[in-house]
């Protein structure tokens, strides 16, 4: 009896795994089609000065405008795209769209709104093509230097012998800023901060989240900010949700703030209406 039960269970699991595999293949095909049919969109979330008053930068965050399922967030398709080489095409699309948008923001307001773009390490081609294409795309839109920021996570920069290092240096040489996303949750080596010219550290939301209840979170955030400032690196706090967190971050001289307390990611046109057109009026 127990033997047949075991077999049933095995069949149940193998069936479930097979179903998952089919589901995944379907998703991959759908992502491919979505690229062709232009179903991806960028949302923008403003990044404010330390008082939460002025939008200084904006992070581009991809969404999939699915005809049946509505808006789908990146966590549901970026990891799959990374496993299947599709991240390259998606990444190229994000780059071109973000650069086009940044050029449009500049044209509308006459001021630079720095636009930050998330990058998967898998996109960074060691031969240098990836950087070449970034530079070409910026030139095509005659973008002022320093308009674009590229966000990478810590583990992208961990290995000092990786050819990615050199590519990041080339980016920096060209004037594109480099930001470390989700800072603090990756490996703990800080050596790359010395090796590379990092412009921005983005403190992971998990630290910000616990600042009001956990003394050690405050201590960590303070230490990160102090270290960054000694290295002439600016700091963004990610995921600021409460006034209490904002107050603490202001006391710690955090340079920039991003989070639902100030604004959620929004469609490009909303972002323009709220943060670009009004800026244009003030500066006339
Ligand atoms: P991330 O780069 O760390 O982006 C921040 C995420 O936190 C975003 O989620 C944003 O909507 C969310 N967020 C912002 N403020 C708050 C807050 O106050 N509270 C909370 N709970 N969440 C907040 P989203 O848009 O779902 O993006 C998730 C991740 O997907 C991003 O994390 C990034 O790693 C990745 N991603 C997004 N767009 C792209 C892209 O174009 N390319 C690549 N390779 N990855 C992307
Ligand atoms: Mg990011
Ligand atoms: Mg720089
Ligand atoms: Mg982050």
From TrEMBL:
Looking at the record, the residues that make up the EAL domain are: 24-279
Q: Tell me what this protein is called.
A: EAL domain-containing protein
Full-length numbering of the shown residues: 398 to 681 of 681
């Amino acid at each position: 009896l127990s033997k047949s039960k075991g077999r049933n269970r095995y069949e149940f699991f193998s069936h479930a795994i097979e179903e998952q595999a089919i589901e995944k293949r379907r998703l991959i095909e759908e992502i491919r089609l979505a690229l062709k049919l232009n179903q991806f969109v960028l949302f923008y979330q403003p990044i404010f000065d330390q008082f939460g008053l002025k939008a200084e930068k904006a992070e581009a965050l991809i969404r999939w405008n699915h005809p049946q399922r509505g808006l789908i967030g990146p966590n549901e398709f970026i990891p799959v795209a990374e496993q299947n080489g599709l991240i390259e095409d998606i990444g190229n699309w994000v780059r071109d769209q973000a650069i086009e948008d940044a050029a449009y923001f500049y044209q509308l307001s006459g001021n630079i709104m720095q636009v930050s773009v998330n990058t998967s390490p898998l996109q960074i081609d060691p031969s240098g093509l990836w950087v070449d294409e970034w530079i070409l795309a910026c030139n095509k839109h005659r973008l002022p230097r320093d308009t674009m920021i590229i966000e990478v996570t810590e583990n992208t920069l961990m290995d000092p012998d990786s050819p990615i290092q050199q590519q990041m240096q080339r980016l920096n040489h060209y004037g594109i800023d480099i930001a470390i996303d989700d800072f603090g949750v990756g490996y703990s080596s800080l050596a790359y901060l010395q090796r590379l010219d990092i412009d921005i550290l983005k403190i992971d939301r998990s630290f910000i989240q616990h600042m009001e209840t956990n003394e050690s979170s405050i201590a960590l955030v303070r230490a990160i900010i102090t270290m960054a400032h000694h290295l002439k690196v600016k700091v963004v706090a990610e995921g600021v949700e409460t006034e209490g967190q904002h107050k603490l971050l202001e006391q710690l001289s955090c340079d920039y703030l991003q989070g639902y307390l100030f604004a959620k990611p929004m469609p490009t046109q909303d972002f323009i209406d709220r943060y670009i057109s009004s800026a244009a009026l003030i500066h006339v």
